[in-house]
Amino acid sequence: MLTATMEKDNVKINRKILSISSKRQITIPQKFYQLLGFENEAECVMRDNALIIRPVKTASDGAFAEQILAELISQGFSGQELLCEFKKKQAQVRPAVERMLLEAENIAEGKVSYASYDDVFGTEE
Questions:
Q1: Which of 3, 16, 78, 124 has the lowest CB atom count within 10 Å?
Q2: Are 99 and 81 in contact, with CB atoms under 8 Å apart?
């Protein structure tokens, strides 16, 4: 394993060359594993020409949970039906956030146009 630390645009980058087993397996270096907070699962994403492996984060703090429940209760859901609808809605949160992040990244890289706050909401006059 080749280890290197470099800096790009004032950002410190830790880099390691990993071996790939005959079964296409890699081992996450312990330092990276601990620093990034990996647990039992990893998410693997292919973006452009890169493979991104990151820890799977679960919303243990209940982010959005209260809002989702309040909305579903106001729509008349209760009991088992409420639980089922809650699970569906909660499963939609992460993909929606990931889409927003990707859209923001594309805007930042100039790949797509964007609308400013004033374009959307107008200006106070």
A1: 124
A2: no
Beta strands in 38-123 (DSSP E): 42-47, 50-55
**Token pair for 25:** 């397996």
Hey, what amino acid is at 46?
Answer: M
| Type and span of the H or E element at 86 | helix 79-108
Note the pTM of the prediction, 2 decimals. Answer: 0.42
Q: Give kind and range of the element (H or E) at residue 30.
A: helix 30-36
69-120 per-position pLDDT tens digit: 989 999 999 999 999 999 898 888 878 888 888 888 888 888 888 777 777 7
CB count, 10 Å around CB of 106?
13
Q: Residue 3: which pLDDT band, with cuts at 50, 70 and 90?
A: low
Residue bearing the bigger pLDDT, 78 or 47: 78
Q: Where are the beta strands (DSSP E) in 17-119?
A: 42-47, 50-55
What contacts 5, CB < 8 A, 6 or more positions away? 12, 13, 14, 15
Question: Residue 91's closest CA among 66, 74, 61, 68?
Answer: 68
